[in-house]
Amino acid sequence: AVVVTDSNGVSVVAEDTVDESLWVRKWDDSTNQLFYFNLRTQESSWQEPSAYKAVLMSEPLDMNTERAAAVEESAADPQQQSNATVAIQSLFRGRKDRKKVEEARKWTEQYDPTSAHKYYYNSETGESQWEKPADLLTGVRDERSDRAVKIQSLYRAKKARDRVKQLADEEEEEEELKQQLRDKEAVVAAEEETMAALASVPTATAQWCEFFDPRSKKYYYRHAVSGAIMWEKPDEYVSSSCVEGSERDRAALSIQCAARKRIAAKDVATKREKLRSLTDPITMEQKLRELKEVAVEIEAEIDCRALVSADEEQQFPHLAREKTFNLQTALQRA
Q1: Domain WW spans what residues (predicted)?
Q2: β-strand partners of 129
């Protein structure tokens, strides 16, 4: 038996055959198959040649001397030759697998809240990409990537809480607008009632009539006969629902009522339009979708909190948790 090194630096244990041909078995990475190569004639074959009696060495025998000697000594025994072949192949594949794992550890999966898509970050090169790397090793993270993920989670959760508060403020504004709308509609109804009461009075027998001063925004009282004016309600005053003043007083009061009604009705229309914009189905659907996204972010923060150390919380005080926030209540209100 002799040890032969081919042009690629691969050492093999082989025996001289009658026709002096030296066949070795090698591995093709592109097809994941074994093939046979003749060191003398440079011939390659997928089928095992009849003259083949060599042992495959999948990598150069640049290992320690003892292991190389053991391989050389075992060449005479076919079973030992086979075992040596498997051992060397395992060493080679193990080294390739370890290299793949080391490469895969560099990539981590991240989340971009702006686009709501995942992306992949290489902690060694700083490279980011949307496509999933072929060598991504799921579940493997380094310490620096874990720290980045925790800080990103805290920041996104803070933004999510701020958005929920904004939606809650909009909801309070909506309720306030509804109340203002009800008040204005009540004013319009009261003015219409007053005008109807004035229109139903045929004669003028009341002494005092009530008027509204738009400048001071107060009511005053004028005597139908003497023309005297008082800011305090006279004892003899009869409410507008049964006023019986002069035709001129009734006309003036009717004009004032109509003006107040027009102003109130315009205000009602403005508030109703604003309220409609807040309660539009598309707007409400968008708010609900945002709340659901917020829920995902805050749930991620809850999971992340278990990984945050006390030193990290002190280092990032602006990301501190807010105990007053209640996500469940916000979702129920939505």
Answers
A1: 23-51, 107-135
A2: 120
